[in-house]
Design goal:
alpha+beta; Butyryl-CoA Dehydrogenase, subunit A, domain 2; Butyryl-CoA Dehydrogenase, subunit A, domain 3; 3 domains; seven-stranded mixed beta sheet; globular
Length: 607
């Protein structure tokens, strides 16, 4: 298993030299304490915890998995101690209000921490990670009494939280939710139903688990308009915050999963469990999805995490493992064969992993700035600001989640390929990365769901293409000053300029075709998403290349010259070898739907 090393140099490059986070934090109402020294201390502290505590548990946690016994779950050896250290370090409350025990730092800092944690040990990161959605929901929609009761122990990490959406008969289509909520004389509700795929639904890391549950009131209208949201604690909570009796919610089983095996994914049975309404009746789905943009950024981080970890495993192996001679002649004459890294095809694979990891990280860090503004809008009661940045994230997050998780899975599979047959053997840990990465394209909405959300909802229905126009105009504005430049930046700018106009044109073409054939949206959406992803990553590689070139030219860079040269060379590789994939997606999305829809259902036969 690769021993994780936090990529602090690349993180600092993005924070300080590409996106100017110091100025960004200075502009936020909660950014006063996020000074460069404070940010650096947080990065260093998180890196140490991830490298020394979480990373060593990654392989052993996968091998041991979680143990289930009559509704109780035991996490793998070392997880309980690691979680106690995590909570004691104050990491859970990094971006939550001081009035509940948090440090009230910008949300983006929590995301930087989560990237390191997720790369070191994604299974572990699921436990505190799922609490964030619960905490955000309680903070925005809970009553004063609910916030005072539940937020402090959640922020402290003494309790954890879940989000209980999915049921056996429905996944993404939550209009089919059947769980019931019966009103009680004391104002509480009795919640009954079964929820599946509940990450961190049961475990031994914390003294209580607060479930946020979707259910229907007796008089609720059908479909998504009739779903309410409830707080259902594992142990009932007394008015003074102490724990009471065990609630009637119990894990029926753990899912037997392909990957992230140290993360407890439970089937939860609610048998008349006591719950408390949060948000307005029949508007639970609206409340649940209020923070979905930031949740999807968190899932997109998984794509970056697995690309990074797989690269950290592949690179040293490629330098050490020897096989054959390079086609251009001996490179290591003192050995019987040359190192793998001398072979052009292996270098192609390594550069692909590097390009996806670093390109994806830059996309995430840009989104994190938008999320900071969105959250500050909530905190200050500035509804207009909140809606502005929520809309920006609404367009951007399907690309992040859909594209980056697909590229993270590809990078994980490449890691196995670099190792050859050894990549298929468990002891090296490369196959675990591929197994762990697989879920990222499925939960929080499959890639197909993200694609439909992007093209069908955000582009065609909500904005009629305006969101694409706004984003591509930013790309054009970036590229325009470099169009007649020489060298790498000139090449990048000219290619980006063409791709931005191509994106506008494709959007118009799909929009016109969809007006005549509704199946066009579903048939074209995957290719539209992937095209958007490749062009978007190209834009952020352009931003990195510009910053690197400037630092090389004026000599003011904080990193060695070799770092900036590698940035330019990786950017050049991306534009020469990876961005051209967009052409095939462009061609496919404009193809007739006939080849997809013409076959009769009964002709989908295997006999």
């Amino acid at each position: 298993m690769p021993q994780y090393k936090a990529p602090l140099r690349d993180m600092r490059f993005l924070l300080n030299e590409v996106f100017d986070y110091p100025a960004h934090y200075a502009s936020l109402p909660n950014g006063e304490d996020a000074t460069p020294d404070m940010v650096d201390a947080i990065l260093e502290g998180a890196a140490t915890f991830c490298e020394e505590v979480l990373s060593p548990l990654n392989l052993s946690g996968d091998q041991e998995g979680c143990t289930f016994n009559d509704g109780e779950v035991t996490t793998p050896k070392g997880f309980k101690e690691a979680y106690a250290e995590y909570a004691a370090g104050g990491w859970q409350g990094l971006s939550h209000p001081k009035e509940y025990g948090g440090q009230e730092l910008p949300m983006s800092l929590n995301l930087l921490k989560s990237e390191m944690m997720g790369t070191a040990n994604w299974s572990f990161t699921m436990y505190p990670g799922l609490s964030l959605g619960c905490m955000n929901t309680v903070f925005q929609f809970g009553t004063t009494e609910q916030k005072n009761l539940y937020m402090p122990p959640l922020v402290e990490g003494r309790w954890t939280g879940t989000m209980c959406l999915t049921e056996p008969q429905c996944g993404t289509d939550l209009g089919q939710v059947k769980s019931k909520a019966e009103p009680q004389p004391d104002g509480s509700y009795k919640i009954s139903g079964t929820k599946i795929f509940i990450s961190s639904g049961e475990h031994d890391l914390a003294e209580n688990i607060i479930h946020i549950v979707l259910a229907r009131l007796p008089d609720a209208p059908k479909g998504t308009k009739g779903i309410s949201l409830f707080i259902v604690p594992k142990f009932l909570v007394n008015a003074d915050g102490s724990l009471g009796a065990r609630n009637a919610v119990k894990a029926g089983s753990l899912e037997h999963k392909m990957g992230i095996r140290a993360s407890a994914t439970a089937v939860l049975n609610f048998d008349g469990a006591t719950g408390y309404l949060i948000a307005e009746p029949n508007k639970g789905l609206e409340a649940m999805f209020t923070f979905m943009n930031t949740a999807r950024i968190g899932t997109a981080v998984q794509g970056v995490a697995h690309a990074e970890l797989s690269y950290q495993g592949s690179l040293p192996y490629a330098k050490e493992r020897r096989s054959m001679r390079a086609l251009s002649g001996k490179k290591d004459p003192d050995h019987t064969a040359d190192a793998l890294i001398w072979h052009a095809d292996v270098r192609r694979m390594l550069l692909t992993q590097k390009a996806f990891a670093e390109g994806g990280r830059s996309m995430i860090y840009f989104a994190a700035k938008l999320a900071d503004h969105m959250v500050s809008g909530v905190a200050t009661g500035d509804k207009a600001k909140y809606e502005e940045y929520d809309d920006k994230l609404g367009f951007y997050t399907p690309i992040l989640k859909g594209f980056l998780t697909e590229m993270g899975l590809e990078a994980a599979n490449i890691g196995m390929q670099v190792f050859g047959g050894h990549g298929y053997i468990k002891e090296h840990g490369m196959e675990q990365i591929a197994r762990d990465a697989r879920i990222s394209t499925l939960y929080e909405g499959t890639t197909g769901i993200q694609a439909l959300d992007l093209l069908g909802r955000k582009v065609l229905l909500t904005t009629r293409g305006a969101c694409v126009k706004e984003f591509t105009n930013d790309i054009l504005a970036f590229a325009r000053p470099h169009l007649f430049s020489g060298g790498v930046m000139g090449k990048i700018a000219r290619k980006l300029y063409r791709r931005a106009y191509q994106w506008k044109w494709l959007t118009l073409r799909v929009m016109l075709r969809a007006a005549k054939d509704r199946d066009v949206v579903s048939a074209a959406c995957h290719d539209y998403l992937m095209f958007s992803g490749f062009v978007t990553m190209g834009y952020f590689w352009g931003l990195q290349a510009q910053a690197a070139q400037k630092k090389l030219a004026d000599g003011t860079g904080k990193e060695p010259a070799e770092f900036y040269k590698a940035k330019l060379q990786t950017a050049e590789f991306y534009f020469e070898r990876l961005l051209p994939r967009a052409d095939s997606h462009a061609k496919s999305m404009l193809s007739s739907t006939a080849s997809v829809m013409q076959m009769a259902n009964d002709d989908f036969s295997f006999t």
